[in-house]
Amino acid sequence: MNKFAAQRKLAFIWFINAAIIGLIFVIFTASGRFGSKSSDGWQWFSQNIVPTLTLMIGTFAASMGQATSTADIEKFYFQLSYYISLFYFLILYLTIFLAPFAFNETQLSFVELLNSSKIYLNIIQGVVTFSLGLFFTKKTEPKV
Amino acid sequence: MNRFKMLCLMMLASLTAFAQNKITGRVIKGNSSPIVAANVKVVGTAIQVYSNARGDFTIPIPNSLADREIVLFVSKTGYSSTRKVIRDEYRQGRPVIIMLRMISAPPPPRPSAESDEHADQAAPPESRSDQVPVPRFPWPPPEYSVSAVLNKNYFRQSRTLSDVDKILTAALSNLGYDDRSYFEIPNGFALVTRIEQIREDGSPFIAPARWSVRIRAYDHLSWSSYLRALVFPPRGFFRIIVFAVTDNAFTSSHERATRTDAERWLRAGLTLLPASIGNRSFGPNHQCTALIYQFKKVEANEARQITGDLTGMEHLKNAGLIPLVKSQ
In angstroms, rounded to a whole number, what is the distance separating the alpha carbons of residues B266 and B257? Predict the structure, then answer.
């Protein structure tokens, strides 16, 4: 499949979800959901989303001047990074949306929950970065 | 050689920096004598130490806390616990002096025959249930959120303090306040109810949530309650009612009680009103004042005492106490 189109699909997933989570965090900051630890909440956001997002922006910018638009990539690499990214965002959303249940069960505050989630999110983020790395480096020449 | 000197200087500097990463202090009581084995804890961490025989303590502060505000929580059984915010001067080696107030003490000398005839007639010393020393409630009472003086007419049939206690306990029992605690106060007694979780309007939750110290993000799961719990931090309100029956005018000591103090009152007092106090006469100057201690807990933070939006009387009405006291 065309690599540029695949890149756009991946970027769409990342930018839309990052914007949604960013908006949720803005609302949380305004409503005092983080208490006095707003910076901890935003640190979670910047640690889990911003690195991959900037990596994508960087590769996009780098590929702008090249002939990437004509390059192809195996569908497998695209689907791998696409579904792993979707799974990653699913876990991010679950961490946020399960907070009320987690509090009722364990009295864990929202910021404490976010901090604890770094343990498993770091592992998944590693897998995401690996799959995106494969995606960005692999390419096949288009069939003539 | 220069490199060696530099290395020595760097080691010395790092040692000096390490030496500053501790807080020293002393825990004392009212008469400045030391309190031994008081627990000193750094809030939000697992760091805790105990004061030694001179009341002194030293807390090592890890580098991770170097730039943060440090709050010490100091407690000792029989004393009101306290929190101390550590300012910069304490980090620079100045010792912190922390004073704890005693919450239970031996009973004061009995009032003279002239001031309390009934007591002497009806309750001879060392009689019946008075073998146990009666703990004293901190007096003047710690700063309460609100208060309300109960109408004297509710107690018009009362001749002794025990009669007043009967009216109060009957009403309290009807409302599920089965755990109570008695203390001696000047010329009277204080009756402390168990801490209960309440709604913002002062009405209590239904048990077991009422007696639980855990707050909940939502009570019944619905879309609206879930969204509220998601967007806003969970919070809970707690209340302790202290009925102070005395003929002494009083004001608060202006010292804030923590929720831990308030919870300790229930355990530190007696389960029954001792006869030595109960048999004293309920004079024309006696009043029953309800002191309301209200606390607000937001998410996992420490509960803090608040004034709240309700008056003392609204608290008592919404708790359902007033109609029951009236009908006794």
Answer: 14
Assess B64–A contact: CB distance below 8 Å, yes or no. no
Q: In angstroms, what separates the C-alpha of B227 from chain A's closest C-alpha?
A: 9
Q: Look up residue B259 and give its two tokens.
A: 């929720």
Residues in chain B within 8 Å Cβ distance of A107: 214-215, 300
Side-chain-side CA neighbours of B96 within 13 Å: the count stands at 27
Q: Mind listing the pLDDT tens digit for each residue in A32-56?
A: 999 888 899 999 999 999 988 888 8
B79 close to B29: Cβ distance less than 8 angstroms? yes
Amino acid letter for position B94: R
In this complex, the residue of B226, B230, B233 whose CB is nearest that of residue A32 is: B233
Using a CB-CB cut-off of 8 Å, the residues of chain B touching A101 are 217
Using CA atoms of B110, B111, B112, B115 in order, give the dihedral in degrees to the nearest 10.
Answer: -160
Residues with Cβ < 8 Å from B164, sequence gap 6 or more? Answer: B155, B158, B245, B282, B286, B288
Q: Which of B229, B300, B301 sits opposite A100 (nearest CB)?
A: B229
CA distance A128 to chain B (A): 27
ipTM for the predicted complex: 0.84
CB B233 to CB A110 under 8 A?
yes
Residue A116's nearest CA partner among A98, A138, A135, A137 is: A98
Low-confidence ranges of chain A (pLDDT < 50): 144
The answer to whether the CB of B122 falls within 8 A of the CB of B116 is: no
